[in-house]
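Subgroup meeting minutes
Present: P.N., E.W., G.H.
Scribe: E.W.

1. P.N. recapped why we're keeping a running log of single-chain structure predictions: easier to compare across weeks, and new members can see raw inputs and outputs side by side.
2. G.H. added today's entry (670 aa).
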Amino acid sequence: MKINEFTKHTPSPILRFELEDGRNIDVTEGHKFCVLENEKIVKRKVCELKKGDYLTVPSFSEINEKDVSFINLEEYFHDREDIVIRDVSEFVKPIIENLGGNSVLRRTFNFPQSNIFNFLIRDSFPLPFLLTTLSLAGLSMLDLPEERKIAVKRDTISLPHNIPLNDEVLNLIGLYVAEGHARKNESKKGFYHVSISCTEEEIRDRVKKVMNKYFNLNPSEDHEDHLTFSSKILYEFFVDILKAGHNAYNKRIPGIILNLPKEKLSSFLRGYFDGDGSVSRSDRRVTCDSVSSGLLTDLEFALRRYGLFTKRYQYSKEPGPKVRDFYIRKKRKIPVFSITKLLILSDYIQLFYEQIGFSLKRKQKILEHLIKNTKPLGMRIKKEKELVLPRIKAINHLGAEETYCLNVENNIVIANGILTGQCDGDEVAIMLLLDALINFSRVYLPAHRGATQDAPLVLSSTLIPSEIDDMVFDLDIAAKYPLDLYKSALEYKMPWEVKIEQMRDRLGKENEQTGWMFTHDVSNINSGVVCSAYKSIPDMQQKVFGQLDIAEKIRAVDEVDVARLVIDRHFIRDIKGNLRKFSTQEFRCVSCNEKYRRPPLLGHCIKCRGKLLFTVSEGSVVKYLEPSISLAQKYELPNYLKQSLELTKMRIESVFGKDKERQTGLGSWY
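Output recorded in log:
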């Protein structure tokens, strides 16, 4: 879904809608919801809804799937100097010799000879060094042996450079999102730990097997209730690359996994429900708990891809014995955690069993028992095909808050799983003010008078036509032009001799702001010229040629006068202005951008010893000179204008010198 606009608004009254499926949504009074009426989805404003009305929650979502076979760690760490590649010495050594030995690479990287020698002996090459060395030899990382490893400098632990996103690894990532956490300490004797809680022996064995097989890691801590693995790269894999979060409050399903084909997504979800899912022989439902609102939203989205509707239930819970003892020892108040339970109801258990299920044998057996021995109880919540219709349980006023609105392409947004209408109207009007709001800042405003005279330093909330610039008062607002206008044109009458309604005729009247008409309809105001020829034609000579070529074809235009105006009003003024600027210009350092009124005697920048350049070049002074002279000769313009050009040319030659090679004929331009 493409977001076209995103806007922030001043505080306005907020209403909270509580639904019978456990969902809540906070909206402004002017927002719209999508409701089902006569088997059609229609939009209704908040003010039109009341307690007991039905909102719409889709139970199925279809997306464009994007399959990813593996995650290449080298791509993520390509600019990291603390990352090394190992097990490639036999391949890299001949490359270094073919490049001219250590001396060439030492000059390239400013390394002492011992460094490159150590890389070869230890079979451990910094990733930036390796990338550059391969590039000098016309190779890439794809040419290296597939069995190479990636590691952190001075770390004995090495990981495979490719992590496959297969069923086993996705299942492990699901377990981490459900029961894992990551910790780090960046002190001199710091650590990077990834831990996964697992009391089931089957899960413990699975985690050990997958970590060893695909990450080349064994547990640094092996306890009854959790396994811990020590590796900086593993930490960054889960926290920074996957962005799966490091504790229960910021856990998320990685975006790369949410978009995978459903067969692969199922492997992740099985791992998640193995760790955090619950199933009971007495209740035909599957549940999971989380304190992360983002993770709950991700889970609802993922399950909706299979057509699985979920209900929410919130409850409070005190911490377990170990955590409670910690707070008692610290003499702190024992906190109460607010937890949200996600429920897959009985009507959807069969679909959950067929599409996802559990990989943990104990839970899968219970699920199979429910499928064989129980029947769906039916939902109390109303359902229509792929839409679930929860009733509004309560509408609460929360006071005024800042709001954020967005506009999307299809006019419907799913917010917290609920179908809502997008924002429009006022939000689009606000966007039109953006230029004025940005330019109002005096940080952006130039200091000279020409730039500030048009700056929007005063903004009017109410537009009064009689107070705007009077040049617009001559705007025609008639629906059509009378025949008298065309007859008067044949008689060469003046425009004001024909009476046509204009904006000035309505000033001070009731209809001064309404009923302005136009003569021709248009299907789309954006269907005109998007990029003018003035921008698409590369140089000024061709632009002027095109302008005069049109002038010669139009009988109503005097092409000689057009050529005179182009030179008199544009070219010659630009030449003289740039020549004056060249004589009074500053000098700029290319490195630190420091400016000097006069170049220092040292010949370079005093601050950084960088090279000094002109701020106005010779080319900007003379670029219009020859085209102007050519135009004056071709169209036999007045002698006064020709002499002005000759005097200007003499002044330029007195500054830059006379260059015979710059004398070109008329054919060079046309």
